[in-house]
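Supplementary Text 2. Reproducibility record for the structural model of the 257-residue chain.

All settings were left at their defaults, and a single model was retained for analysis rather than an ensemble. We include the record here because the model underlies the residue-level annotations in Supplementary Table 4.
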Amino acid sequence: MNDLATVPPAAAGCDQTGLALICETGRMDMLARRVLTALMVVVLASTAACSDPGESAVNPEEALATAKKVLDETSGVKFHLTTKALPDGVDGLMDATGIGTHAPAFKGDVDLMVNGLSLKVPVIAVDDLVYAKLPFTLKFAEIDPADYGAPDPAQLMDTTTGLSSWLTEATDVKKGDRVREGETVLTSYSGILPGKAVVGVIPSAHKSSDFPVTFHIADDGKLKSVDVSGPFYGKGGDVDYTITLSKYGTDEDITGP
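Retained model, structure tokens:
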């Protein structure tokens, strides 16, 4: 009992040689936890700031007009037009990928559905003529795309009746969400396209119908994609098309075969 009584009170603190290392370690652990917590707060705040695309002050009409101007003034773009399915019994365009210029001209590959068969056809469209290398042939031949339920792909780049005209022909346009795709922030704008505007790109579209459309536009004014649906092939049923644009500024001299 006497030995215990002689233990000095300082043993409960951190000044004793036997306890100094333990106490110092405890203080270091507490400091490390505080530093780590502060760093986590900074990292989370920075991540939130980078992930939040913020709001765009541009109104829908200005945004669409700017996107039309940018598309009309570029030398060329890469197009990808696609749909998951056509209505039963309908011949038409399933997919098209290629380069479009303001000649207007187009060079690429087109997937067609004809009589229930899927055909992939290399196509060149220039000078109001369309050439295709049809299955089981070795050379390009002039065709009428309407015979295959398809449009002239060069017309996508026509500044008056092509894809860019949709940007200013759309009505009841409303701004939607802003989303980040990698380093690009896109704003969506949804509205209604009158059939008379759609037939400039796809002549088989039902002229008196309305076509719901959504444009996805980057902050630099580039139209990046379009989602549009409606009766593209008369009254055979609605089709959902997505058109993606990339490689703005492409410069290619497209000539006939």
